[in-house]
Amino acid sequence: MGSIAGKVEAAPSGDGTRNRNSRLIRAHFRLFPVAVLAILFLSLGLDYCFQVLRVASVLRFRQSKSRTIAAYDRLFNHAVLIQTTSIPGTIAPVNVVVYTPSGVPNPAPIILVHGFATDGNRDPYLNDVAKRLAPMGFLVVVPTIPGESAFKMQTSDLVVIRNTIRWVAKKTGQEVSVLGVSFGAGLVVPAAADPSVIQDVKLIICLSGFNDLESIGRYFIHDPVFDPRGMPYVGNTPGPLLITAPYLDELVDKNDLPDMRLLVNRFFQNGAQPLPPDDPVLSRMSPRKREEYKQLESVQSPEMQERFRRLLSRHKAEFDSLSPSSVLRNLKTPIYILQGASDPVFPSGEGEWMREELKHSPDAHVLITPWISHVFVGAPASRLDHWRTMQFCTSMLSKAAIRKFISQPVVGGRSGDRF
Questions:
Q1: CA dihedral 18, 19, 22, 23 (to 10 degrees)
Q2: What separation, in Å, do the N-terminal and C-terminal C-alpha atoms of the chain show?
Q3: Is 101 in contact with 139 (CB distance < 8 Å)?
Q4: Tens digit of pLDDT for each residue in 293-329?
């Protein structure tokens, strides 16, 4: 038999075990920063996706909240005080609705400006957005814009918007974000860019707005209008009454004016849609007046087209003063423009012209998306277009949430105090 000792393997030495453990520890230490970075990037990615979905619910890009966002809102959203009041105005007091989040020190202020809406600052869409923004920590102010409430484009509305900017900036001691929709999106640009208030404006946001009101008027009467690439505006225009109704006395005989005003009022009561033949007011008019109104609404005859062309030329200076095109080239204030690729009111060419006007601006952002028709989402679009739109709005509201102080606020440092 051989020696037992010769068959037994030598036990590993203590030094070998220590070396192996040391190598394992060094390997773990090398992997630790990688693991931490991976967890950090994953957390940031999930947080960003969460913020995008939350913004989508705020702007009603998603009709219902996910369970996760709804649970988060219940846990972390702020109670909101809603007040209706009037503020001093240059022409007349301005009626506003103020949404104030409780428990938020110096909430970032944002003004929401409606377009053509008979409800004024009670417009359901903007108030729904306000009710979603305020619990996130924004102080939201919704003014009534008198001309827009009466389906009129008038320069006095610029004064109302400036009055609101000045009042909110003074009350909060902060620069203000201003968001406009539809016709209101066009008005907020020249209003906010005015030298008397520009220092109080932090951010301008335009949702489904216009660039040049005279060009839109010519598009509405079927004149050829082109985007910066020379492509013609296309679509079924809503007709020129949207912007020319206040000048009806320049378009019709004075003897026909009372009846034409009745019919134009019916047009707006019908949501600015063509009146049906059996409309109770239209049906009792004489055949001649029915035809005259039809031409005002649709502008099919060369004679009516020429009347509208002369009107647009006479009021060019007024239309220019209401248009973003009058100020965009020199605008330095950050601006976000969101336009529908197939907008039935303002063609995407208006967004392209704004992009062109702003090409030298250091902080201008323009997105033309197929997902939006006019203000609301719902048009056919890819998931990538959905994501781009939500990401654009996330960036927009993140910038609006940054506080930029210009003075001590008139109201106390806590929100929830009455305005």
A1: -150
A2: 104
A3: yes
A4: 999 999 999 999 999 999 999 999 999 999 999 999 9
C-alpha distance from residue 19 to each of 13, 25, 27, 31 (Å): 10, 10, 12, 19
- Residue of 401, 408, 417 whose CA lies nearest to 172: 408
| Structural domains of the chain in order of their starting residue, each with its CATH number | 67-212+323-400 (3.40.50.1820), 216-318 (no CATH)
367 vs 371: CA distance, rounded Å: 11
DSSP-derived secondary structure for 12-28: PPHHHHHHHHHHHHHHH
**DSSP-assigned states of every residue in 223-270:** ---B-TTSPBP-S----THHHHGGGGGGTS-TTTHHHHHHHHHHHHHT
Tens of pLDDT, residues 162-182: 999 999 999 999 999 999 999
- Let me know: does 28 contact 36? Beta carbons within 8 Å: no
Both tokens assigned to 52? 């995008």
Beta-carbon count within 10 A of 407 CB = 11
Is there a contact between 156 and 91 (Cβ–Cβ < 8 Å)? yes
